[in-house]
Amino acid sequence: MPDKKSASLRELFLRNKRGLLTYLTRRVGRADAPDLLQEAFLRVLDRGAAVEISDPAAYLRRTAANLATDHGRRSDQEAKLLVFDGAADAPSEDSTPEERVDAKERARRFAVAIEALPPRCRQVFTLRMRDKLPPEEIARRLGISRKMVDRHLQIAIERCRKALK
Known about the structure:
Strand content: under 5%
CATH architecture of the largest domain: Orthogonal Bundle
CATH superfamily of the largest domain: Winged helix-like DNA-binding domain superfamily/Winged helix DNA-binding domain
Oligomer: single chain
């Protein structure tokens, strides 16, 4: 019996892999789409072991869509945690000289990373982080879609994180 079930899961994977990967790439970007695809299949596999799923392909698509939505929410929360001007890294009055040097270096790398962003990406990032505009307002002001705003923010956050590591 397990051989029949694993064969059907393999077939489900082969039939839906390309379409779901394309869908997820559009939703979350090329870097995160393969991980979400794998997570979707793992969840279907885990769920399928517990109960019989009447339409595995539909369940898989819904799982992938939910994962993409969760990823977007997480990205929004992460964006809120990034402080635009580096003030969070400002050393306290009683910090050591090394801590002050480290904080200055992080602030410098952050500023360099922002300056290195493509112009539209930098503009979106600045409007969101410094001016605290909601993504819908940024999209309206710049004449771009909300998804494009999200994509620019994702790129900016990824590059700033890399610069600060």
